[in-house]
Write a structure and sequence with these properties.
Four copies of one chain form a homotetramer. By secondary structure, chain A is of the alpha/beta class. Helix content of chain A is 25%, strand content 27%. In chain A, strands 2-1-3-4-9-8-7-5-6 form a nine-stranded mixed sheet. Strand 5 of chain A pairs parallel with strand 10 of chain B, so a sheet runs across the interface.
């Protein structure tokens, strides 16, 4: 499985103090390191999970890409070879080239997994794939967030405590203007009383999309072992189950499906 | 309730023979007339429905708009006053101005209902709101379509036979690349053996979206009384339940909701 | 619309102090009075809702029934004439006769609406209709509950503030073992930090089921005007759209549907 | 993974001719053999699937159980050791002891997977878990069934042609009175024109339930390699992701979750 962690990397490169303190090499570096650690063979990722259903022994590659690279580091070649793309953006959504956004969306439709993090709710790829405004309420008050599992059998919740406790975090609150999720995995509450659908899953074409809200640039959330566990689970869940394939509208003559070859080409 | 029936009106204006035969004044004229007839007070729309839950006695206005009008007939003022917009398009999707598309999408997010018809599956407003390719299989062979109700308690299926029989129609077949519907109301089968999710409902922001596939320019489907019944039901279902409102991402100070006025502003 | 409010009426009849203080004539009396008031023509139920889409002018009848009556007040005749049944139970679930439970479930399948309140999550009709354990976490600490709308276009949320504030209430927390809801309308948070899916909607056969958790015997929750608004909305939402009808498995000869009469019999 | 294939085994033991022809050792024997073959390491189960995401190398055990055995072969000990239970029943649903049904349902709630086949739609475990009548339309005319994939990214559809062609099969048609599925994987059409939601997935408690309609006692459907592929996929999908666990309603003191041990106990 090839994972690419994309970060706009603007808070970091312009030198925001708090961000550099928690993420001296960028948020992407910490997210990637967490994935590496949790997906490594023998990693402590399966506490609570059934012994008979351990992790795949397959190898994983985790690399990073940023806004500042040519084509934002997301060339056609690279996306074609990416199984799951993680996306972190906040203050530079507008700087992401539409051409790259179309490319990302096209690869999701063709089967690539996408995990959108925190303020990425307003990113171009996510709003394109959702079709809603993705607006929400917010407050940056460094308050406690509790992440509750409401789909205990879901693979993204495997090995995760109930609730995950994040001591300090930005508040994201409802109404969160997203389509009704295909699967709701987590709900978050905040010390101030608000609630948020913090872990939601969708299918878009042949690709899977997971949005996970915990993780702000001002708090060390991506160093949290339970959050890393969620991200590793999400990567495994979002990985494609078949080859990349463009979906098109084609005429089909009557009885086309009596030919086995035609049937085997897939939907 | 103000209903606007939009039609690209290209098959008609360029003089396609079959279309002009079935729809001499345009597809929009027949759809609008059907809505007028079925939504009129006392209309025979409630066969099979509970006597205690008859139709609203409210008045309805049905008007039409086409691609050829300035701003395609969909100005800001007009959309602001539209409760439900019907959309028929086929060969001129690309000619719809992006600015008008954004306007339509914005009004759906703010509460306007949208009913997308047949080949409108590939229209700009629909694909924007879905976030998928909306591709499908097709064959124009004039074959029988049966429309089966799988949500018998759904208001869009009220008074509709099981199945609706359409003698001649274009085939639309799965895989139909749409997001998992919030509600599936109808499934269609075709004489050739294919199946299609022909009546599917979604929420997008504060607006409701219904896609209904029966209805091709080469067949007189919109003259069919059961199809007209579905469209009238869809108009009533899609009508907004509250005032038009833009959803935005706003900061909220701690305990903002202890103020009743703030709570009453809505989500 | 005929509404029946059912209550086990055991806390009240055995003389629990707090219950009698808030509900001297029983919880059912207050629920029924609230429904009467909110469903009355001209009632202030539409604040925030679109002027064009006011309430039906139809008349409503609200009566009550209790465990202590013969057949618990739920005879075949009475259920046949009930559009929506409200259910409140807590410590006497086991005393409800299986025969009556089967009758209630059968009428829901045939189209009757059912609104299950608070501790009714463990009632026989609800667990039968859900097929899960319906277990949850709880704490009776008289703490603040906030009820957040996450389906702002849903009719059950019409005219409801965001959030509803309940000053003192029992805590119900996740994991709530229910099937994935067809529609999630409300999420609740509690002062202690827990979260709960407090307003969830399902279809079962031809009937609609709504579960709403706010409302404990020790707190005056059913006197709360916003809670009464939710219950009145739920009654309107759950009301059947067609005549009561038993669903059965029947053989159908080939081409049965070419007969219009057969088609018109419904699904 | 331990799989148990349960069969009422009544058509076979009473000597129905056609059944004995296709299934001389019982339907369960053929279903079990198909699972064995398709789940074996190196089995041709992944055509079309991504090379990086092959099958688990874990070992599988497939055994059978029938109505005629003591406790129908489904003792507490055996179910406790069963990961996925397959269920085939038709004319003897009533002969299944309620105690055994309760046991099966309890194990599903606690995490056991359940795959219900064909006429099992009317079995006690399935109707208990669904909460609906599970009624449908039917006709035994030996007509062609086409099984179309509408969730191409779903693991149960991996390696399956589009459509699967079954030359002769009993017709099952809508309206199928089931709860709205969590996931719809397959839709079937029949030569006579009917449609059926033939592959639907649910969560019930910690357990997963899949219903798959193809497979009648009078036709050799379970010998069909594509059908065997679906059943093998369903077994892998339905397998629990964590240890068996009873869900109960417990009081939780304020701040219980500040104790890590309490959080780690799971939902």
């Amino acid at each position: 499985m090839n994972i690419v962690v994309w970060n706009e990397n603007v808070h970091e490169t312009r030198g925001d103090e708090t961000v550099r303190e928690h993420y001296p090499d960028g948020i992407h570096a910490v997210v990637a390191a967490g994935l590496e650690a949790r997906l490594a063979p023998g990693a402590d990722g399966a506490d609570g999970s059934h012994p008979a259903h351990g992790q795949h022994a397959s190898t994983h590659t985790v690399t990073t890409a940023t806004l500042q690279e040519p084509e934002h580091g997301l060339t056609e070649e690279r996306l074609a070879d990416t199984d799951v793309l993680f996306w972190w953006g906040h203050i530079a959504h507008d700087q992401v080239a539409d051409e790259v956004v179309e490319r990302v969306v096209r690869h999701v439709h063709a089967g690539m997994g996408l995990v959108v993090l925190h303020s990425g709710h307003y990113s171009k790829p996510f709003t394109r794939l959702m079709g809603t405004t993705c607006s929400l309420k917010w407050r940056n008050d460094g308050e406690r967030e509790l992440v509750w599992t409401i789909a205990p059998e879901h693979p993204i919740a495997a090995g995760v405590p109930h609730p995950i406790v994040i001591d300090r975090q930005e508040m994201y609150g409802e109404y969160f203007d997203i389509p009704r999720p295909d699967e709701e995995v987590f709900l978050s509450t905040f010390a101030g009383g608000e609630v948020f659908r913090s872990g939601v899953a969708y299918r878009r074409g042949l690709g899977k999309v997971f949005y996970f809200s915990p993780g702000d640039q001002e708090y060390p959330v991506y160093h949290h072992p339970d959050i890393q566990r969620v991200l590793a689970n999400a990567a495994q869940w979002a990985a494609p189950t078949g080859p990349r394939r463009q979906l098109t509208a084609d005429p089909h003559p009557r009885d086309w499906f009596t030919d086995e070859g035609a049937r085997r080409q897939g939907v």
